[in-house]
Amino acid sequence: MNKFGAYLKTKSFRNTILLAIGSVIAIVLIAFFSLSFYTNHGSGIPVPKLKGLPIDQAINILKEQGFDYQVDSVYVGDAPPGTVLEQDPDPETNVKEHRKIYLTMVTVKAPPVALPDIEQMPYIQAAATLSNNGLKVGDTTYRSDIALNVVLETRIAGQTIKPGTKIPKGSKIDLVLGDGVGASEVEVPDLTNQDLDAVRFVLKNSNLSIGTITYQGIITDSSNVVVVSQFPMKTDSVTKVSIGTKINLTVTQAKK
Hints:
The chain is of the alpha+beta class. The chain is 26% helix and 33% strand. It has four domains: 2-39; 45-106, Trypsin Inhibitor V, Chain A; 112-179, 2-Layer Sandwich (Trypsin Inhibitor V, Chain A); 185-253, Trypsin Inhibitor V, Chain A.
């Protein structure tokens, strides 16, 4: 043991250690510089900036500079069709000649999607449903209806379209919404020659009511009478009245 300790302190041992360390460093440096030389480290052709260019122009640039290329397409509603959206590798990256550059362009034609069924949906829910299906809300108009801000109808360019219709992705859908008020006027019904029970039913369904009932002639059975005239009555100048209007009736005994 004492002899080994004494050997560690000799000049021969120190020279051996230094030689071993130097050999390792030399091998690492040779490997590093050899790899750099083999791969042309730090040299190459910078990739041109192609984002935003028309796809034809981008391809011509790549061909002129000796690059290969591969093109994929994706639809983006707000981007100009036919332009380069993404590229890989990034601009100014040094690569070897004939390196393949991957381009993503905005497709010229929007893919078709089916119009979702949004009728009778509240506006906020309908807008979210359209967005989830790649569509947009266009103009909104209101129509007299008791339902407030509920979709009553869907249109494109003034034409009504039904759920399931195939339309281009990104299309703007015009919405007809209810104003929450409903119709303020209704058509005047023709009540003549109808029995009183039938008249009550018609007026109730029309949001109208019975006003004064005038009996004409001898009435022996008040449960069996027919209307002979009414006021207001439907004429060329009067076709509608306000909701809740009372209709005055003149009735007479119905024939058995």
